[in-house]
Specification:
α2 packs across α6 and α9 packs across α11. The chain is globular and about 70 Å long. It folds into three domains: 133 residues, 3-Layer(aba) Sandwich (Rossmann fold), CATH 3.40.50; 206 residues, Rossmann fold (3-Layer(aba) Sandwich), CATH 3.40.50; 100 residues, ANL, C-terminal domain (GMP Synthetase, Chain A, domain 3). With 551 residues, it is of the alpha/beta class. Helices cover 30% and strands 26% of the residues.
Amino acid sequence: MTHTIKDLWQKSVQSYPDLTAIKYLDHKNICRVSYSELDEMISMIGRGLLVKDYSSSHIAIIGESSYMWVASYFGIVTGSNIAVPLDASLPEDEITDLINRADCEALFISPKLVNIIKASSAKCPKLRDIWYMSEYTPEGIADESFKVDSIYNLMSLGTLTSSLPSPGEDDLATIIFTSGTTGKSKGVMLTYKNLYDNVVNVDYTADPGAVVLSVLPIHHAYCLVMDWMKGFSLGACICINDSLMHMVRNMSIFNPDIMLMVPLMIESVYKKIAATINLSASTDSTSQNSASQDISPIKNAPSTNTHSSINAALTTKIFGSNLKIIFTGGAHLDPYYIDRFNEFGIDIFEGYGMSECSPVITTNTLTDHKKGSIGKPLPNVELSFEDGEILVRGTSVMKGYYKMEEETDKALKDGWMHTGDKGYLDDDGYLYINGRVKNLIILSNGENVSPEEIENKLSLNPLVREVIVSGDNNGLTASIYPDEDVTKQKGLSKDSVQESLQAIIDNFNAAQPSYRHITKLIIRDDPFEKNATGKIKRFGNNQARSSQKAV
């Protein structure tokens, strides 16, 4: 048996054909797709691609979480093609740039994204086909109809052949773009074996039919691999959360047994409970700092060992009646919340990973866990340390960055992945992170933000002479030193400079997903301190004499 996603999927279909694979909401109705029904869609998409002469082709997927997104992804990776999932919330120009940089020849896309359909049709010359994931043609795309079609027509082509090639385990399966410190997103190349080994080495089991509520962005490696691939391997029923705004409502609708969350979600849910039952919230000055965030937990919470002491009816209404396990990663979670959720009868297990490692590196498990740590390495993972930096080696480590040899050589040295995180193992073998080597900003919601990408865009405005973007729990801050020549030429007062820079920030924010919004503007009176080569010293340069909140 080879180690591919196709092998995992076929085993699941053979074992659980009649079980529900996916549940989703259509207005107020709960809809179901069985493993056998989903397999038919996956097979038809894969065979349709073969009929259209797609082989070892890069194919992008853009859209919200949906059963058709999942069918498209698996239709690509269970054949001989390479899936490129992209963030639908990115600005149009960034999406088309990533499609081109990934050399995508085809695109599956949500029918809601008409502007992206138009833009990619016009700006991505390598695209041969664009399939919207719907039966109905979106309004306003008639001009692009020569290459735009419904995914259902592609599936109908799948009836013309019964054959479907099988990929090799060392073949490239997917390219996942992740923010980097070079100012340019990097395409992480993961093989079939990378993904397979990550799925089988994450130690948790569940009974077939266990319910998982998927709330994270589906294009993220953590969600894609751990919710969907791992969930399917267990015969789980994956429920689609239609909106973060509806997450708490959907928890009570779907009654999940297991969830994956980023720490910010856990904190937000707890604070909702605390506010509802009139618990007081204040800053805990003893909360530990971490590489990712500095959490100020809520104090004066219930300290008993049973959730009945706070209000069982309320917690059941929020969590549903079955939730017992939450896995979390992407940022630091203060142990305070682990204690509080344990009082509700819910265990939280924290882990650590990155897209470059498919993505899980370490995790706490049901039988082997230590609060405050990020767990022990997976069985297929080795850890080492160089000047405090965490190095990773194993069968889930990426092949490299797509068409970025210099960045690949910096990250992968003698088979060791340099994570950019600083950490240590305790005497029991549990990993802890205590700092970051790289400049990458990890927000408390788990999103990775490259400051250089934002700085490069802001610097295009002539009024911006120098800029550094930094981040903390509360969002992103832009520290800007205005161009004195421009201010003099235009006769701008200090108030006018502030208004103009604020307008630049507002315009930038309007085109970005919310996690990349700049929420604070600092205007510097003096240039940044620089090193001998003229480069700005990034750290310790955010002092200013005036500041203004950005809206």
